[in-house]
Design goal:
3 helices
């Protein structure tokens, strides 16, 4: 039996890890959070409904690690580009 509650474990996660959990897990109930010993700090977050939310493996900087390959996926909300939406000002022609 765990001596520390999931809420306490979540509270002490780095902010970047919490952000990634919210982005990929949403409001899903977390079953457990485990720190994994690797060459850099990594956290495994498991959810109550594993069929809907598979485990997340997250580096300390918030990078989601794809465990089926060695590819790393950046948190999508950290790199959102604002698309340019043409406005009526863009359509005006400037005269000589």
């Amino acid at each position: 039996m765990a001596l520390t509650s999931v809420g306490t474990k979540y509270f002490f996660l780095p902010a970047e890890v919490k952000h990634t959990v919210l982005v990929y897990g949403g409001a899903s109930e977390i079953r457990d959070i485990t720190e994994i010993e690797t060459d850099q700090p990594m956290y495994e977050v498991t959810f109550r409904n594993a069929r809907v939310n598979p485990p997340l493996f997250i580096l300390e900087d918030g990078t989601l690690v794809n465990t089926t390959s060695s590819a790393h996926l950046r948190n999508p909300l950290n790199h959102v580009a604002t698309p340019h939406v043409p406005s009526t000002l863009d359509q005006r022609k400037t005269g000589p």
